Amino acid sequence: MSYKQSGRMKSGYEANKYSEHDDRKTGSEGFNYSRLGGRGRGRSSNRGRYMRSDTRSQSTSSGSFARGGKYQPRRGNRSSHRRPFSRGRNFPNRKYINPDANTDNDGDVDMQGEGEGSGRYNPYARPHRRARFVRRDDNPSQSWHKIIIIHGALYDEKWLREEISKNAFVEYQPVQYHLDGNNSAFFLDDHSTAESIRNCSKKIVAPDGTKLTIYLKPAKDAPLQENDITLLKEVLSERYNSTTKHLSLSSLFFDDKLKNQNVKIKVSSPVHMYIVTKIIAENISTLTSLDMTDSGLFNLDGVKHLVQHTPCIKRLNLSKNKISRMKELEKIQGWDLSDLTLDQNPLCAEYKSKADYIRDIRECFPNLQILDSHPLPAPVKFDVDKTRLPTSVPDFMPTTGQDIIKQFIQQFFKCYDESRSQLSEAYHENCIFTLSLPQSPRGPALSHYFSVSRNLKRIKDTAKKISTVTTSRNDVISLLVKLNGTTHYFSSFSVDVPLITSTVVNFIVRGVFKENGSNGVLRSFSRNFFCQISNTSLQIVNEQYFLRNPTSDELREAKTYASKQKSSSNVSQQSEIHVKMISSFAKESGMNLSFSEQCLKENSWNYEEAGKVFLMLKEQGKIPLEAFGK
Amino acid sequence: MTLDRSPPTLKFQIEQSIEAGTKFCSLFYETYDKTRHKIGKMYHEAAQLVWEGNGVQGKESIEKYLQDLPGCFHIVDWFDCQPILPQFTNGNESILVAVGGTVKFDNHTLKAFVQNFTLTNVEGVWKIVSDALRLRPP
Asked: Where found in the cell (chain A) (predicted)?
């Protein structure tokens, strides 16, 4: 491909212009072709003709694609179309890749507010869009760069930062880290750092086992400076009415005070909205009324992140924006609005019937009373109130026998992690064990467990239904030993005890563990134990082990579990060492334990130092007699 | 894998548990989704329900508790059952059933569930002794 490229480069601006032009045209053709797949094949001869004539005109005009002006079979036709694409795809050094094309358009927002609103994955349209960047960005090293981490909003900011600098071998200072829909992004002014971070794409493994995708894009605007933000703060405080708790962000871009200082704030840009969100969250999180009239909003990806900081908002004005999809309003469903103004948005024009419009809005905001400054008719309500689900409670434990169960769980999982082969005491010799997996697990493969798994919904063969049950202590242990090594996060555990009698107890333990090994994939489990109670100890009679991949919430929480676990085990290890030191120091010195401890502590647990000090003090006779009394 | 060494009665018990569990799974969720007013009959007089950590004791209370939940629709993805050996249950025939899948409650988003039952055979009829349910985002 490269030799062709260099050859074509010579064809100069003229050819370049044509090829770009053609890219665009054929791009859309190619798109149709591929999307329609089998259905579209030969569907309309008309289209085929169009494509042919298109190719011909292309080959004659640009010259460099000449393949003979004759009819070309479709296959050849496509490949000749492709070549200009591939050039387009390889625009200067692959520096910038447009993330829009890969994110379902749910994340990225056009900073200029000139978004095209095309919501579809459209691979063949990419060259043309990228070509735009080529023209715009002639010297990338002089401007700001924007790093975008796809689905980065799921992960902890600090963790992301550490992982990136570990993988890219660079120290960097992210400027204005912000969330943009589901993605997160920040700015960098150093081109080489930005490049090396971009090169980490698909190299960082998230706790859920997915590989992070990182994009690099030229930043259209430089990030705001510190004094710009101070000015913005002033402007916002002027626009806030503390008695009505009303904040107006309307036409912020045209604000005189900002304009005079040449500060351009676009609420429609996620990074600016993120700064505004931060200011609001820190200063006026109790506000109840928000005006965002005329803010050039295409979507609510930026506004979405304000919802959690301002739970009291009841009135919202979004009129004169460019919101065109109901989906956007779902992003701010967390606000329990009673008054919403939406007029002069493309969305409103979509509805022919006012009733439909009201119904759809009410779906998002059931307690809405005023819409576009008109009071709404009372909603149709019946007195059945069967919509609420009971709130979740983390554990269900009986009043008696709690300690035995807790102790058993603690010991069982500790042993399971550390020396699984010694679990035999925990199982009854006639115990029954099964392991199940979800039918279609998402995330990292569970194939390691598949050979022993039992899902009666899937297994049709009766012999296999029976053979997947493990029915003796030895077999259970040898099966468990074969499974991946694990580290269970005890703070993630929750326990339900639905059944307890004087002889048996049934409890279900749920939680998260990390598989040992380089990848350290996280899994969630739910283990149903049926135990016999004998002499205040438990022995497992039945176990049903269910294993799955964790949800995004569980992954987020797992970060904190991991750090907690580390510190607690450090403490316990530390204290074990200290206990040993104290007892041997007591033996050698002849002092009692509490004085030994004091002596060691005062010498910051340095055994030799403490010994020297002890001997010195003893010689001087400064040690009280009671130190030697037991 | 261990079948040859185990006594034939165990194989029979496992087969029994599979039959009872399979029938129970389809019947329970069908009743739950379509005719919930009848679901109380499937519980034992002294049954224990643990619904997302909320404990409910006794057939009548469980019946009322379940009636008050919004309408729903279950899709079972997997299930598993085991016999509990009679030596541990005073000779009663009992099984454990674990079920997982997704459930859609009216006016709520789709949720994944895992539900663990203990069933016991009372004079030829299987009754739920304990029922523990947990929901999570799918």
From this structure: Nucleus
CA distance A482 to A121: 43
What average pLDDT does chain A have? 75
CATH among 3.40.50.1950, 3.10.450.50, 3.90.920.20, 3.90.1010.20 for B8-136: 3.10.450.50
Give the number of beta-carbon pairs within 8 Å between A and B: 161
pTM attached to this predicted model: 0.51
The pLDDT of residue B27: 94
What is the DSSP secondary structure assignment for residue B129, as one 8-state letter? E
Architecture of domain A226-375 in CATH? Alpha-Beta Horseshoe (3.80)
Please give the backbone phi and psi of residue B114, each rounded to the nearest 5 degrees, phi first.
-130, 130
Q: Which residues contact B85 (CB under 8 A, 6 or more apart)?
A: A430, A432, A541, B10, B13
Of B24, B132, B40, B30, the residue nearest B74 (C-alpha): B30
Contact, A438 vs A453, CB < 8 A?
A: no
Q: CATH top-level class for A560-628?
A: mainly alpha
- Minimum distance, in Å, between the CA of residue B66 and any CA atom of chain A: 10
Give me the pLDDT at residue A80, please. 42
Give A560-614 pLDDT, tens digit per residue: 776 666 555 555 556 667 777 777 887 788 887 777 777 887 887 788 888 888 8
Determine the CATH number of domain A402-550: 3.10.450.50
User: Which pLDDT tens digit goes with each residue over A245-254?
Assistant: 899 888 888 8
Contact B68 A386 (CB under 8 A): yes
With H, G, I as helix, E, B as strand and everything else as coil, classify residue A133: helix
Class of domain A94-111+125-131+138-223: alpha beta
Q: A454 and B80 in contact by Cβ < 8 A? A: yes
Q: What is the DSSP letter of A223?
A: P
Q: Which pair of structure tokens corresponds to residue A378?
A: 């009372």
Entry field: residues in chain B = 138
Nearest residue on chain A to B116, judged by CA atoms? A528
Instruction: Give Cα B9 distance to the centre of its chain.
Output: 24
A497 contacts on B by Cβ (under 8 Å): 50
Extract the tokens encoding B6.
């185990």
Distance of alpha carbon A399 from the chain centroid:
39
Distance of residue B49 Cα from the nearest chain A Cα, in angstroms: 7
Position of tokens 């598949």?
A: A450
- List chain A domain ranges: 1-90, 94-111+125-131+138-223, 226-375, 402-550, 560-628
pLDDT for residue A569:
55
Contacts of A462 in chain B (CB under 8 A): 15, 18
Task: Evaluate the CA torsion angle A166, A168, A172, A178 in order and state its sign.
Answer: negative
Quick check: B62 and B32 in contact, CB under 8 A? no
Q: Which residues pair with A121 in a beta bridge?
A: none
Which residue from A minimizes the CA distance to B55?
Answer: A396
What's the rounded Cα separation, in Å, for the pair A321 and A388?
34
Encode pLDDT of A281-324 as tens digits.
Answer: 888 888 889 999 888 888 888 888 888 888 888 999 999 999 88
For residues A273 and A176, give the distance between their C-alpha atoms in angstroms, rounded to a whole number: 11
Tokens (6 digits) for A567: 């510190």
Average pLDDT over residues B7-26: 86
Q: How deeply is A116 buried, as exposed, middle or buried, from its count of CB atoms within 10 A (0-12, 13-18, 19+)?
A: exposed
Indicate the pLDDT class of residue A84, thresholds 50, 70 and 90: very low
- The answer to whether A167 touches A127, Cβ cutoff 8 Å, is no
Report how far residue A623's alpha carbon sits from residue A614's, in angstroms, rounded to the nearest whole number.
8
Rounded CA separation A166/A553 (Å): 25
Mean per-residue pLDDT, A174-179: 84
